[in-house]
Fold:
Amino acid sequence: MNEVRNPVFLPEDDCYHQLSEDPYETETNWWSFNIPERKIGCWIHAPYYPNRKAITWRIFAWDDEGYDPARMAYFRKVEEAAMPDNPDLRDITFPGDKAGPGYSLKMIEPGMKYHLQYEDVSRGFALDFTHTGLHEPHRFPPGKPPFMQTPHFDQLGHVEGWMTLRGERIRIDGIGVRDRTWGPRGGPYAASPKVYATDLERVKHPGGARWREIERERGRGRIQYIFGHRRDGTGFLGFARVQDADAQGWAPMNAGWIRRDGQFGSLDATKSRMKTWRNPKTGWCTHMEVDLIDELGRSMQSEGFAVSTMSEAGYGVNQLMRWDIDGGIGWGEDQDVWNGTHFLRVLDALKATG
Structure:
């Protein structure tokens, strides 16, 4: 297993890792891409639980015609499917259910190029595409939220191929992001070790709009992950520390990058920030401003607008975002993760009339 402190990913990291006996050990593979002209975003996501020999996987595509699983362009989830002994992630077809098999994944070039295929005949839906990395997998440093101990990387890639949606064949040709993570998650690893006597004590910087104050309560498990890139890979990616936002709503960014002229620069968390505005009807973000500076001293300002939205549970969302980046148009996502009860309190504050 590649050590946590090792920033380099090796060909064997394309495989599943020899993990501990921890019941919460999880290893994921995630693939995303978009089709901007159709306002479509698409995910493939598969957490594997080696100590249960089970996998849960999801494939979904969304556009601007419906956000919930019944109204998305496509949604399918298979939970706790039994995995074979010693599965090889470099060449695998994941187990399915009565509706049919899961997706297949084949490594073509270690760390760089992969072919994915999937078909749901009953829904007239299929995927057949390659992800070719624009760079080697980019490791985030351990010890910073949200990757305190867990090895994690992201990789931009050229995604090229086809989606079949309701029998219509649609071209895929753009920038996508994939990631991998392995280590314990969920259960005690998802809980904050801090104990707060009151909700007010959770707020590091009181003041400002009431809904913003509620949003930045600490210990609620809030994560917001945003990214946007032009076709040449110019762009940004990072996590917003919403819990540390100021009263005006500016939240520091960390565990991310600016990429320009093919060169990465890690975000300077003391100078990089994001501010978002929310729809008082839905509670979801409508647009954002991002003001970034990296370790090389390079700056990047970007403004993004939500184009289409999906939500499995009605609170946390993934959104296709259109970004203005360095004078050009880029595309990416807003991944806005909430505890349901916390989200309802923010939404109540947004809807308050007196």
